[in-house]
Amino acid sequence: MRFTHSGPAPGRRNDVATLKTLVPYLWVFKWRVLLALSCMVLAKVAAVSVPLYLKDIVDQLSVPATLSALPVLALAGYGCARLLSSVLGELRDAVFARVIQGAVRSVARGVFQHLLRLSLRFHLERQTGGMSRDIERGTKGIGFLLNFTVFNILPTLLEIGMVTAILLHRYAWPFALVTFGTIAVYIAFTLVVTEWRTVYRRSMNDLDSKANAKAIDALLNYETVKYFNNEGYEAARYDKNLAAWEASAIKNQVSLSMLNAGQGLIIASGVTLIMILSAREVVAGRMTVGDVVLVATFITQLYAPLNFLGFVYREIKHSLADIERMFALLGANEEVADAPGAAALAAPAAAVRFEQVGFAYESKRRILNEVSFEIPAGKTLAVVGASGAGKSTLSRLLFRYYDVGQGRILVNGRDIRELTQDSLRAHIGIVPQDTVLFNDTVYYNIAYGRPGASREEVMEAAKSAHIHDFVSGLPDGYDTMVGERGLKLSGGEKQRVAIARTILKNPPILIFDEATSALDSRTEKAIQRELAEISANRTTLIIAHRLSTIVDADQILVMEAGGVLEQGSHRELLERGGRYAEMWRLQQTEQLAADDA
Fold first, then answer.
1. Structurally, how many domains does the chain consist of?
2. pLDDT for 4 beyond 50
């Protein structure tokens, strides 16, 4: 599934589907949910009973014969009702807090784990800045949705039902009709206008994600921006997205003002009608002063949260849009998944074989054509060829970042599609051409090869990679921060950290993907010796550009246009006088010219 943050805002949402996706995360805490709902119901019953006690107090105090006596029971009931309403509300909040935070944590963890399981293709196509903003807004949206659904919408709807029933029972039907009718018109107006407004919010989100993605991309490529003096260009590109966001935000605010004005008109009309009805009933002698207080209190008590309900509903719709966008990440299919009943690979040594492997990243562009070779356990195979010949694709397929289009890849005679990805990758270590380190300490980056390793094992790995002395000489030693992508270290230092990390992992299969091609000759020779040491007695695949680094390989594969052109040892290929011999002569000539310069 292709997932990018470009293009228009998403089409029509399915809020019910979004809520269904969220329910399992909540039901883990079902007893807390049920307890919180019970507290909510009891709190609302207490809140609705407050005006009833207030009516009794006013009526009893309005009768001359009782002026000298206090309505003790009514006053006690009034106080208890207010206390229970407050205490039960706070208890509901305390009980439900674990549900909200637990659900947010579970969803965020689930999305993060899913993203890590997705194929390399997905991560090559996505934009980090926009995606991180989607996750951030989505998790915040879950908290808002749960908070205000349980704490505002459900209690308000429950209170509306109880108040309407009380008015119907105690007074003439017009009171209930006006109250319920006003609420119905208010809710209908809010629903219709909010649905119309949602497109502006979703457009804002999309434009915000795109602007953020542009900014993050420019910051990640800070050096390239500086190299080409393109600070102004990047700022203008970012501002172009911000301008589109600004226009959408203005439309969003104007439509919000229209909604608020309409809601205010509806509520004012309903309150006025209720007070007119109350005044007529008092004049006619069918209602007491206490009844007027009761109706007025109900109206005040009801319309206050109802006015807030408009804001809550709008924000819940926005939250659903944010949550849907985050859940869309969960909808991205795993291109590479473990087969049912996949076996775990567990072997101290491993033999690798490619059988008639064909592969294409895109249907129109074929990368590999019927590639076949074998690396016996403990032996070394080097792959050389021009850029674009498909060399690095071999390592990606062996890691199972992608599945082959045809043929198969075997490890110890088993098709790697029959093995679990975790166990397969645990048996493979790689030292890439461009080593990217985490923005953490040297120790953390080495220990990443095996997070459970002891400090002594980490230092032994560093010694084996000949970087221990260098690290020990730093002011902070192994606690030295390496910076974003390891930019505080030189190329050679980063490569040694990568080697130490791979040594610590201790895998039976090693891949060196042009691990020294970006280094100077002196550093390259030093690291080559270290690579030779760690590859001893391991099944090793070397992807190389400089032929001088792979002359000792057991077998050398020459690739061209996605196929195997030649195969043999260094001596055999030179004697054959083919493409490899031509490449060798050319590189030797270039090296002599460089030495003479």
1. 3
2. no
